[in-house]
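Usage example:
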Amino acid sequence: MTDGRSRRREDTRQRLFVAAVELIAEQGFSATTVDDIAARAGVAKGTVYYNFESKTMLFEELLRHGIGLLTAEFRAAVAGLPPRAALAALVRAELEYIRRYRAFAQLLLSEMWRTNREWQQTLRLLRGEAIAVIAETVRAGVDSGDLPADLDVPTASSALFGVGLVVAVDWLVFQPDRPIAEVQEALLGIVRRVAQT
Amino acid sequence: MTDGRSRRREDTRQRLFVAAVELIAEQGFSATTVDDIAARAGVAKGTVYYNFESKTMLFEELLRHGIGLLTAEFRAAVAGLPPRAALAALVRAELEYIRRYRAFAQLLLSEMWRTNREWQQTLRLLRGEAIAVIAETVRAGVDSGDLPADLDVPTASSALFGVGLVVAVDWLVFQPDRPIAEVQEALLGIVRRVAQT
DNA sequence: ATCTCTGTACTGACTGGTCAGTCTAAAAAC
DNA sequence: GTTTTTAGACTGACCAGTCAGTACAGAGAT
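Running the assembly step on the lines above writes:
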């Protein structure tokens, strides 16, 4: 599993992920061709189909990989913190993630609210996993009295997730010269004020 | 201009707009075929090309039409109001618009942050027109001292626009049974708190 | 009133190109 | 010697855009 052979194969898969995420972020899933992905990754087309079952499966595995990473960072960020600090840590983690994987964030923003696509079910499930971490934190805050008791936990959680995504990507696309630290401050300010009881 | 012939033609164009906006919101621009649009509108494929130069031009005219409407409603909403009331009116107008044209809002959210698409330039321009109305209002608020003097006007304006879009569409897609009035209250609450000096 | 005539709106079969996915034989990596 | 990758020709489905032809409303002409 970690011998030379599979390490090599894992490299190729990573290169294909990187190529696919960039192209799909720019153009969308349908407008991106498998030939493009192979060319950008510097591999032959056959290699794509040696490593992935289909274009759709490549995309689904990409989604799983990307959101899995995000969920893991969310979990690491909140570990052991009290509710209010944990909430701030989540915002920081989300923005840090978007800064590192901006193409994936852009892709998520564009494909997240689609309906009637083959991979839509997968995406919903994964989105749910990431938001569940946020929801646990918000729930803890409500239970401990740190957050307003009448707060709608699932709604607040998904709104928090979406707001971070849209504000950060908007900033990246339309004002790419500005430092991400500013977005982070602005968002933290918003969340802090909103969370005030 | 308003005789039977052009009225009929205008009807057909409207039907094509409606069909196109629904399909593109669900599937995206590239995944939506001209045959699909024609079929949903109940016309022959040739009719699409009789009324529009190309699939891309149909989409661009659709964007112009939809965002033009939004911009007009923004202008009507703020007319004559003092800054803080105008800001609340803008949020209300945006949500009212999204409630009425939910498919168009979904489409906007999905295509807004794309790069490298033929119609991207048009979309940026139109987005700028709508946000300009928000920016004028925010600017007036800063000048009159109703809003913090150190507020970054363009950033705050585009963030406000994007946040309304993402929160409302997220609600519509993932919790469609809930009344939009709740989103409106939640968003107004957020904006009110954030705008506090 | 009926009868051409004319431009407008629309039709749907067809074309040329594009693209996901297949296949092969041989090379390279391990 | 087994796994992974290569290069790219090929197939079949699909799809944007075209075009010759139909339908029909209304505007004179008789």
